[in-house]
């Protein structure tokens, strides 16, 4: 029987390898960036943000034993990049409210982090930090955005397979990612001890899937899709 410490070590390695796979869409996005439409370019910048900040978060955890504040910054920036991608994808008049929604979310998240949840104390005193409401609000916004996109897909007649549409591929990846992490967020108090490492390794595999789908989307986005029959028609 393998030793428990060996299992934990290899689960950690699996998690780090899956996290490092963000390099796949980053390289693909940078290679084809000039040929991508605006929505996909926003996702390239999002991948770059993930790479820089999450790498720094891993370093901060190793060097100082404290990466509080880093992942919270990721959680604030992420909806802006992804929201920008869907702002240039959705064809609904109320998309003009996206910047306002983003500002409200940012203000509420900062209020939660620093007033309700004590992020500053967690940073200065190297405490375990967990926000109260900001993460759940982010999941609601992101999943809601994806559902709006899928509703738009259903309302239009597509001349080709949706799996050849870059934003559809991306949206499937995001939906798998956000639903998986939402389940982890809602049940994290039930997961204790070594099982946490197993769960995070599984989440790493979900990240790997998302990164592969992002890279495929950038590959598909090199050439503009044919015009969509019925696009832009009001419901």
From TrEMBL:
Domain of life of the native organism: Bacteria
Keyword Membrane on entry: yes
Keywords associated with the record: Membrane, Transmembrane, Transmembrane helix
Record's keyword annotation contains Ubl conjugation: no
The name this protein goes by in its record: Histidine kinase N-terminal 7TM region domain-containing protein
Transmembrane segments: 12-31, 43-64, 97-116, 136-154, 166-186, 198-219
